[in-house]
Structure formats: C-alpha cells, structure tokens
Amino acid sequence: MTKQKTAIQPIRAQNYAQWYQQVIKLADLAELSSVRGCMVIKPWGYMLWESIQEQLNRRIKETGHENIYCPLFMPLSHLEKEAAHIKGFASECALVTHTRLVSEDGKLRLAGELAEPLVVRPTSETTIGELFSRWIQSHRDLPLLINQWANVVRWEMRPRLFLRTSEFLWQEGHTAHASTEEAQVETLKMLQVYKEFVERQLAIPVLVGEKTANERFPGAVNTYCIEAMMQDKKALQVATSHFLGQNFSKTFNIQFSNQDEQLSHVWTTSWGISTRLIGGLIMVHSDDDGFVLPPRIAAMHIIILPILHDEAKNKAVLAYCQQLKTILQAMHYDGRQLQVHIDQRDKRGGEKNWDWIKKGVPIRLEIGPREQEHQTVSLTRRDLPHHQRTSCPISTLTSDYITGQLEAMQQTLWHRAQSFMREHIQFIDHKDALYDYFKQKSIPGFAKIAWHKDNSQLEQSLKEELGITIRCLISTVQPEKCCFTQKETDVYAIFAKAY
Amino acid sequence: MTKQKTAIQPIRAQNYAQWYQQVIKLADLAELSSVRGCMVIKPWGYMLWESIQEQLNRRIKETGHENIYCPLFMPLSHLEKEAAHIKGFASECALVTHTRLVSEDGKLRLAGELAEPLVVRPTSETTIGELFSRWIQSHRDLPLLINQWANVVRWEMRPRLFLRTSEFLWQEGHTAHASTEEAQVETLKMLQVYKEFVERQLAIPVLVGEKTANERFPGAVNTYCIEAMMQDKKALQVATSHFLGQNFSKTFNIQFSNQDEQLSHVWTTSWGISTRLIGGLIMVHSDDDGFVLPPRIAAMHIIILPILHDEAKNKAVLAYCQQLKTILQAMHYDGRQLQVHIDQRDKRGGEKNWDWIKKGVPIRLEIGPREQEHQTVSLTRRDLPHHQRTSCPISTLTSDYITGQLEAMQQTLWHRAQSFMREHIQFIDHKDALYDYFKQKSIPGFAKIAWHKDNSQLEQSLKEELGITIRCLISTVQPEKCCFTQKETDVYAIFAKAY
Description:
499 residues; alpha+beta; BirA Bifunctional Protein, domain 2; Rossmann fold; Translation Initiation Factor IF3; 3 domains; 30% strand
C-alpha cells in the first residue's frame, strides 16, 4: 500500500498535542462532554478499559486483595481530619450542597440543603479510614487487603482526554498491617504488580522509583511510582503506591490489639491506576496513521475485512470470511481466546481498511473474490511499516503462526519503546549540563543526575526555571556526590518535563 | 447437627424486616455508611455483584450492545428539558454547586461556585440524548445499541440496604432505532434477557408485564418490568425496560436521514438492573440460618473446613484439604470453573461451620482427622434441612457427583421459590374479594384480577386505602370484564404490597 498522506494530521513531528487528540478522535476512543472536563469513553476506548480491568483485577486478587464498594460521597469533616490530605485536594473538590429541586413560578430552585456539604470522592482514604477503624480490632483482622474499582472527581480547569479529566475511572487499593515493615513490603509489592502488568501487557517500559517530598501524595510518608516516556519525550506518571505509615490510622483511630493484648495503631498503604493509563498507551505506541494496540491488551485481535464489490461473488466471500473467523476464534493467545470480528459494513474496502488502521487492531485480513478463490488471505500487521500485506494460503493459518504474529508484534512494540526510552535518558554529571540539556529547543528526554534528598527548595526553583520536575528517585549502586551540593547521596533524580 | 436456636434472630416469622438486616449483617454483605443512605458493599456482597455483572454483561454483549462510560454529572438545564423526566427525579437529586474549598481564618469555605448547578446522575437518558443527537445522522448509524455500568444517585430518606440506597450500582442500556416497531422489539427483548438471567442464574421466578401509566418511568411511553415475590409475600421490582418512543429524540433532536434522504426522529429505549437485585436474592432464598446462595451465581461453590484440634494430625488434615481443593477446582459447573476455598482460620470447627452457613456457600466439606484417615469427606448442602451431613469416600467426589449436587441445589431453590409464588397468587373475580383479600392481618400474597387500563384514579385510591399497587398488567387469553367497571378488557392487574 503506497500512501504518502498519513491518516493523522498533523503528524507527531508537527504538533504532538494535536496529533494526540486526532488519534483519539479517529480511533473513536473518547470525547469531551458538555460537562466541563468530563469525558465520554466510547465503545472502542471502554473495551480497552475492560481489558485493563480484567487483567489487573486478576493480579490484585491473586495477591490476596478483595474488592469492595465505598460511597461516592464523604462528609467534608472527614476529609478535613487529615490536614495534608485536605490541603492536597481542596482546590479541586466537587461539593454537593442540596438534595432536591422544587418548582417555583415555573422555575426550578435548589432545596434540601445539607447541614454539612458532601465531597464527591477525589480518593477514598478518609472513607476507608473510618471503615477500618470499625473493622479492625485484633491482630487476627490483619492484614486487611481491599481494593475498589470506582469513579473519582478532581475538578480540572485544563482537561485533556484520558490524561486530565474532572472525573476518571480507577482502582484504589487500601491495606492495613500490623507492622511498618509489612506495610512497606505491601507498598513495594503492588508497585511491582503495576510494573509487571504495564510492561508485560501494555508493552510500556517504565522507571520505578520514589517520589520526592514535594511530589508525595497528600498524607503519605513515602510515595513510589512508575514513570513512562511518551514519544515527545515527556514523562507520564502511570501508577503510584503510597506508604501511609500511621498518618491515617492515628487520624481515624485504627487500632488493633496485638498478641500480647497491647493496643497499637495499624500501618496503612494505598495504590492506584487510572484511565490515564490509556492516554499513556496511546502516546507510547501510536504512529502517524493512528492508534496501535498491543496484542496482549487488545479486546479485538483480528479484523476480517470482506471486499464486497462483485455481487455475484459476495456470498462466497462472506462465507469464506465466516469460515476464517471460526478457525481463528478457536485459537488462544496469552491465556485468552482470540477475539475476531468481521466488518460487514457497506463501505469501500480501502475505507474500511483505513478505519481499522486508525483503530489499531493488531491483524487485518482483507478478503476479496481472489482470496476466496485461491483460498488465501491477505494479512497485514499493524506494527509493520507501510502496511505491507502478506498473502498466505489458508493452510498456513495455524495457531502457531497467528499467535507467533501477535507475539512478534507485542515484542516489536516493547523493544521499540524500550530502545526509545533508553536512548533518551541522559546521564548528567554536572549541574550546568542539566541546564544546557533542558534549555534545548525541543525536549531532549529524561536526565539522570546524582541528587541529595534534602534539595527541596532547589527542586522547586528548577521547576520554575526549566519547567522540569523530579519524576522519581532511583538508588545508586554506590555512594555518589550530589551534582548541586556535593553532599554524599545514594540516589539519582530523574528529571523531565511531564504531563 | 441438632441446634434448636437459629443463627438469625429474629426469625422470618417474627420480624421479617429485622431478619433481613440480620442476614446481611451476619453474612457480612454490606453496611450503611456515615453518609446518609449510602452503603458500603463488603467483599462477600461485592463478589456477588461481580458475578451478576459478569453473567449479565455477557448477555448484553451477545445481544449486540457495546459498553461506554458517560459522565457522572449532567447540567441541570439538560435534565429540565424533558418535563416528565425532571418531575420524576426532582425530589431526589444530589446537586453539585461548588468545585473548591478555601481556607479562611482556619475554617474551610466553599468556593468556585458553578454558574449552573450540576446534577449527579439519577439515570442517564438526558446525557445519552445529547450524545445520540451528535452520533446519529443516517440510517446507517442505527440501530445504536449501548450500555453502561455505573453508580447513580437518588436521594433516599428511608434507606434500606440494597433495596433503597441513595447511591446504587447498576447497568443502564440505551438504544436508538429507525422505527417504532424495532424499538418495541428491543424493549421486550431486553426484558426477556433479564427474565432468563434472573430465573436461570438466580433461581428467582418472576412475573413479566407492563406497568400502568401511574407507575411508568418518567418520560417513557411504556414501561415493562419483571416482578418477584419475597418470602413475606411482598413484591419487588427486579428490572425494568422502557419504550421511550420519540419523547427523548424530540427533546434532544436526535434525527436520522432514512434511505429516501428524509429526516425523522429516532425511537429510543432504556433498561436497567441494579444492586437492588441482591436484596431480592437475599429475600427469596435465605432462611432462618442466614443467606442461601444459588450455585449458578455463587462466586464460591465449595468451602473446605479443616478441623484442627489435634496438633499431631493438623498437618495431614491440611494436606488432605489441599488435595481435595486441587481435585475440586479442576471441575466446571454452568460454564465456570469451580471456586473452592479452604478456611484455615484459627477458630473452632463449629464456629467456622456456622460462619459459612450464614454466608450461604452451596457446599461445605468438614474435614477432621477421621475424614483424613478414612479418606472421606463430610459434605453438607446449604439448601437441605437441618444441615444434614453426608459422609462420602473421596472416590465418589467425581465431577458428575459434585455438579449434580450443585445443580440439585439450584433446582431445589428454583422449585421452592416457584411453588411459593404460585401458591400465593390469588385469582380474584370480584372487587369486594380484593378488599377482603388485602384486609387480612398478614400479607396474603399477590392478587390477579381483570382490570381496565383506564382505571387510573381507582388505582390511586386502592393504593391509599389498602397500601397496594399494580405491579404489572398481564395479557388475558380472551377478553374479560373489568371487576370494577365491567368494561371489556384484555389485561389482568397483579396487585400487591411492594418494596
């Protein structure tokens, strides 16, 4: 297929932000709604979220967590109890003040004013705090390992589809433990679960590290994160895991009696991943022809495209497509049955083909009268350049061949993203070089630099001067000297411009 | 097991409402939260909701619907557009008026007042109306068949767990069609999907019919429903399906050009089932010892209870339990792998056994040193009276035997509930007999009586006098005479006291 013009205009190199919006629009993933900052997730986008939910939910359950559902609302006084927490969310809280409408002179008036406003949850630590204080009495009740899938609201003045929306979907894990060590182990265990899931299923390579004090979750003792590099070399925080120490257990009086009948406050954690991940998936793998869907997370592996321009042959072509579908959907890849769909819409073959390129389906099979007659298929893999078709006889469409193609695509995406990130992380050993690096006209990538944890003010001024933040702190192999203060340190800071 | 005292106090016959609360409490399904009318669904309750979601979602997809996610909020002006709709929901709307909190003299003050309040969705017809008007242009865009799983809020002054809560979880289907016939077919098709699902999987027999004008969904042309009988002989509406005609398409200007290029408004439907269904499940099958879980909807089929009172033998007992678990979880029932769990908690055997009776797990296996030595199991089915144990050698635990036990339990629950409902529907052929029937001291059941559809005022006065409503209208086989007005009619009304 020779086509000079790309499906997405502008292309990445011209205007990355607009390219991102166009990819979403042309793949029909989501759109903004008439409510400020809120989005509608359309079928093709929601299928992806369902795949993410299914695969991550399995991992959350396998690590011993149980799902619950907590109320959407929380009393304002609960949120206020934890000082850092309320400070962190005050500027973006949706508040319910009334519970009724009454008609007066033909106009509606708000009524049923609440004695205390309710906050639409921005996260559920305070609700969980109250529940845990009731549910936990003895060491036998620990560890308490729960999770919920829910919508949360953080009012957003500059919305961007998937990346920043006033309402988003996520899972939030909340756990309570009998010792600080056990809670710390849990915090890091779930970070590893996220890393494994994101890397293995979404083919997104990540850096794993700790946040600085400035970037911590409001109320946490430590926040850990996984960070990914987008194709514009900006960073996206993909998931976080928080060690909350006894901050919330002291605020909400979550105490347990240990084996010696002594009372102690529990240690808690929380961790989450949201629909923001879909924004990352789009920005890591898509190209100038649209979305590219890694096979292991795809809710549709193969699209069959019948070319129906010869009425005398349409019936035979469709029957052949159906036969192919039956063969293919008996196969399994990565523990799931292959999802195969036939696009029977009344549209030209080329148009249909481009629709599915833009949607990023891993494998396309174009089937016209010629393919039917010769019992072949014309196969295209979404990750290969120029949308090269391969013609194969039906006899070669074995399970090994098809899953081999899917796995090859998964690995291609993974290695491509991994090389890209590696090539764009610059080790920097002098503070001046850090300025030079980020003062370049276009974003050069991430910078890795020896850094002392106490440089909190310096971190703030670099943010103001260069527009960069520390995405995470990563342990050094041996002690290093901080490039700014010359103090001995055991961490590198990863600096980047970020979403 | 001989035990005079029941696990639930009071028993059904003494105080049905309190019995219901105790069943929920002792099975640890849910609890009320500190936010008025909102509940926390606990792990054992949420597992049930996950099973319902999984099994119903499959049916919704198999009938051609795709899932999406719409915003939690809607502008008040949108809800106002449909007059009947706003009238129906005005008295129970949660309203967001502010989006920020600011600190002033150490106190928090509401800020960021919205120009127009936002309504927390009580249902999504108006959001969908706006989306459909953008998404639909041509007959090629029809039918448009979508669904969403979401939380909704209807402010509730007298909450009851699962049955009436200010926030609840549900699915809401929304479809648009090119003809009134097609939309009507869809409305009834989804009603049948609900009936089949509820009867086959939850073993809850239902009556299928149409609502009277008084009981219609606000904005619908016709509302259809499935209604179940609880053990106190009150009715519970389990699901509804609405034919909305062109009411919403005219309000939101959802037009399509047909094959002759002429513009027409679409016909729409909506249909939903909620966490209320769990309340119905509890009230139909549970007994004076607690919850009873139909095997086809159970997220845990078998609980293995090791009896660990002899330290020398505990290890062998646990190994034997593990062996049983491995054997059992390789089996399948109703298309799902058997879910088997070992309760290793440090508790007395009898106490553990009662915990799982109250939770309603279909099959319990008690395993002590004797069972291990003789290679037997002591098996109890939750539906059999007096919790009779059966001792069986391990060799008899074949897949046929186990799935046979599960299916026998499913059928027992089904036939028991079906007989109960049949025995308590009274055919009544005179209006005085209707009064006599419902003036009895305790609720006698449902009454079926020939009824003319125009008796709207009469319906209202029966509600006031006797506290009964028409749950649904059911077609007669041949024309009948209305028992109140003697007018010819083709429907029976099912009268009942209802939740």
